Amino acid sequence: MTRVRQALCVVTGVALVAAGGLLGATAGCASWSQQAKESQLVGGQASSSESDPSLPAQPAVSTQSATQSQPVGLFGEFPNREEIPFEAGPAQSLVQHTRATEGADFDPAMDPTGKLLAFASTRHTREPDLYIKTAGGSAVTQVTSGSAADIQPEFSPDGARLAFASNRAGNFDIWMIGVDGQGATQLTDSPAEEVRPTWAPDGQRLAYSSLNPQSGQWELWLLDLRQPGTRKFIGYGLYPQWSPVDELIVYQRARQRGQQWFSVWTLRLVDGEPRFPTEVAASSTEAYILPAFSPDGQRIVFCAVGGSTAGKSENAMGGAADLWVIDVDGSQPIRLTEGQQANYGPRWAKDGRVYYSSVRSGSENIWSVRPPPAGIRDESAPSDQVWEHLALRRGLGGPVSDEGR
Description:
This protein is an all-beta fold. It has one helix and 30 strands. About 55% of the residues are buried.
């Protein structure tokens, strides 16, 4: 059994969790923690006998009210609802950006300039609200408030709006709001739980995840702001992110064989139609989740959670969740974190830094690290030898910076 941590924190109606250890002992997250089997790192089983057996298995869904507190995990589950060291990095590469001591800060997102950080937090309330701060500053501006849970912010390409998921209308839907906290607009309104919005480069379209209440399958959908009320199904999967430069979308999807761990996939939109679904990263011992693109669209960062991490033993589950970087074609894996903490929700900024949530400081906060530059080559398999960023190894990489970049 493993402890379940609140990677995206808790909400009334739906709590977003991830297996791999309780992340933090904060009131906002720990109170909703629960025990979960290692099988929560996989796709699970679909609840409907009418589900297509060729599709990735998904968790069961019940008819329980969405107004009750129920977790939906990084792996799509609804409980109760049917090293070669990389020497080039500076000692100050690791930076802490938020300092919540009560509650938790999570779901980081960077604006197009790389200067503003948006995140969800329970630092002031039990239900998460959205905040914005400068990446190097200490003052935080509250964008949303109320009794609902507002999570998973994502800046529009022009930096003027935030798309996010909220249960303020009952179940989770996709919403949009100005960065000044004005003009909250509901973009989806269906019985399905809809989460993780991501913007197209044109700023007119959004992709998101939707849990089909009939089949129990997580699906990928598109909406066009120029055509309110219309949606388009593009495939099966969870937690998409749109490339900042083209029509490529990366997402996680359960494998159909073996232990059905989640793996990282991409698909390309051609004339608005989904084409070329491609698995770019997979493992028989780990779940690869929460993928995100680099600003140039040439690399992908993701989180690896499972029975062994970077050559560790099968018994080394603990609370560890590592961040990895690969080229967009799946080549050149590089490990960014050292496997001693739970590190989740990576997002790449314009300046090249990767922002993520971690409990390095004892409570869940937002950190960032600068990955090695593209072109560093690792000819060995990840389970044998990996490039490791020495700045992440406390005690070996020098002092941790609160300011430096």
